[in-house]
What does this fold into?
Amino acid sequence: MLHTQLEKNLHSHAFDGYDVNWHEETKTVTCVHTLSHADLEPGLNVTGLSWNSTGSTVAVSYGRFDHEDWCTHKSLLCTWNVDRKNINPKKADVAVDVSSCLMCVAFHPEIPAFIAGGTFNGEVQLWDLSQPDTPLLTSSGIEDDSHRDPVSRVIWVLDPEGKGKNKYKLVSISGDGKILVWQASPQSKEIKLLDGFLLLAESMPRSMRKGRLRPDAEMGVTAISYTHEDKTLFVVGSEGGGVFKCSMNSSDRLAATHIQSSVPLKNPVSFAFTPHVGPVYAVECSPYHRNLFLTCGIDQTTRVYSMLQTKPVLELEPAAGYIFSARWSPVRPSVFAVVTGEGQLLIYDLAVHKVNPVCTLEAGTEKKPVYTLEFNLHNRQLLATGDELGDVRVWQLNDDLTLQDPGEQTVLVDLADSALE
It folds into this structure.
């Protein structure tokens, strides 16, 4: 009898069209981990976050944003494997001492233990965390070919012409106005400067130049993002509020400058957008639309721009203090998140509402400012935030924020098309 029933089930069409969902459905956004390192020097903030290439490990850079002079602090690079069942929320799995404040961090896109960071003193450093005794591979040092001001961000960029170990280039930006392109790999254990750009006041529209600012004065670069379809095209944000479209292929050699460099420093700017009022804290190109990018800044606004016009196509003012970071969802075209000076994580879904967030969460300990956030590219349900007191929170997103609806990309198409009207 059992055999007969099994035969019937084998030919049954009762479950045709049924899509198996192996993860438990969630309707709420929950904090699954609050991470802090017990040996952290008091007063250090979370300055940067990065998920590794497997999505299992989050790296945290610690530093301070309130320096008045040269940095004398000791800081840390810490990592936690959030897939471990016995994760210790008060002690990092790996903690690497850094001789000055570490202002940013970025895991390599394909090598899980290879990571880059930038310090307050202008160094770009590389670590191999698979070598626990001597993880530091190399540093750019504090020389003419490095940065003279704090490193704002480091990112890995796919090189269309690169092969093997040189498939990715490392790009660093700084308050000194430099955008530097490096060759770096764990095999070579060295970092080599390949190319360089310099952002000058002459790139700003005249209406933005304050006082008697010289055209050849450097402008600090605070944020950078490359488009997903063309890795020679990128957008930067500046300390003065400027937002610029730039090209890696620029051959616009700068006039004589007092800055020494072994590679010619070029002007990368091809187009200027309507600026923010004050420093831009983040820019990010949409992974789903070639012409749209996201920005935020000290003027308490979050904006979506089109590459095709100067003015933003969308501007949001959540009235939650400064907006310190903004990121697009890697899996939902219409979703992005921001973190604020009042300690909130705000998640927007443009398919639901163009103005109000669909989710507002308290992400800062004691409502302190939250400085950084990163979606997990390999585990779509996880997002991490880091705050002023050094605490990192890992959030589990609900299905509404992680499962894409058919035709959802038309929301971005319509937004981009509004720039042409």
